[in-house]
Amino acid sequence: MITIARMILVFLMVMNAGKYVLGAGKCDLGANNLMSGGRRNRYLLQVANSYPPPKPGGKGVNNTKTVLLTGAAGIGGFFLVGALVLLLVCSKKICSHLKRKRDHRNPEQRIVVPVSNHEESMTFDPRLPSMKMSDLATATNDFDKNRVIGDGGFGLVYKAFLPNGTVVAVKKLSMDACQGIREFQAEMDTLGRIRHTNLVEILGYCVAGQERLLIYRFVENGSLDEWLHEREEPGKILDWRKRLTIMRGVAAGLSFLHNECHPHIIHRDIKASNILLDKNFEAKITDFGLARYINPHKSHISTQAAGTLGYMPPEYAGGSIATKPADVYSFGMLMLEIATGRRPNLHIKDANKKTLWNWVHGLVKEGRYMDLLDPSLRCSLAVCQHSDVEVEKFFEIACFCTAHEAEERPLMQEVVSKLAALVPKDMI
What we know:
Blueprint: H1 2-22, E1 26-28, E2 46-48, H2 59-103, E3 119-123, H3 133-139, E4 148-152, E5 155-161, E6 167-173, H4 177-190, E7 202-208, E8 211-217, H5 224-229, H6 240-259, E9 264-266, E10 275-277, E11 283-285, E12 292-294, E13 300-302, E14 321-323, H7 324-340, H8 356-365, H9 378-382, H10 387-401, H11 412-422
Antiparallel strand pairs: 1-2, 3-7, 4-5, 5-6, 6-8, 7-8, 9-12, 10-11, 13-14
């Protein structure tokens, strides 16, 4: 659009200069005659056709030629401007058509939910009834705070009891319109169209005015964060083999996102509180509010850096990008957390206030693997065969995933294979 405008302006300048060469016509290019405004640019050229009558004598022929040349130039200019304007309109229509074609080239990639003041709901499981806002309010006892089972970055999660006896989890997104809508669409774009054993299952949604709610299948054993840091009573401690089972599941789910989804998906917020555990302690990755698509042939996408302090890779400090290796780093920090029982975002008091990363990598270099273990694991390891070898290899995989340089980290398929080789599944 800008290029065409410049072409017209140059043409008008040439026409304006023409009055000095031709000597007869007037070309008025005042501010009132060349106008542009808004998104649609309009150009107006006025060519005055006030010519002096030919003088008697020999110069009359020359004056007539001058008038004819000026008139021809004016007519030619008129048609040129018309052609340029027509080209501009056509180019805008072509761009609009290409954009529509691009947005609809793969309709199954997006589940677009209309935004309106009317209520709309849908369930993806045919065994469940459509759940309106009033139904969800009843199921959560009017969103009673005692029903809260999770507090994410974008809203609260409630335990809900449906009339048919089904227990579900209902996430009521924040009323912050921009952030709430963004997470809502991100969850629908990802979990709304994919299924995997190690991903939490979304069952439906409800939109009522500014309210946006997501309905998930209830996961019985809560979050990994609770089991690692908030449960101290005997019998509520995760033993070594359960922790291996959990990390194998998280690795499988993340590998699925990185390699088997089309397009691939970067989670961007792998952490203990975003890993749910079912009744068999099978891991379920949840909270896809920050997830982004990535083309399989690209190494990164340009977007605002996001995640949780302690799990975010060092390269995030140098730019706003999202990559698969960043997810691998977060996974590696989760491995360190589940093995040591220490949070990645807190300094370690009994290790000169080192970060978890520095503390682990330092002791691994010294070969002091058992000194890194969560003290609550001592008993469970005592009854495990080859436990020393398992612990050593586990920390080596974790350090591999948390390499400082992104290109040194493994792919998630490699991590899945390494963890599978660590302990056969039938031994867990």
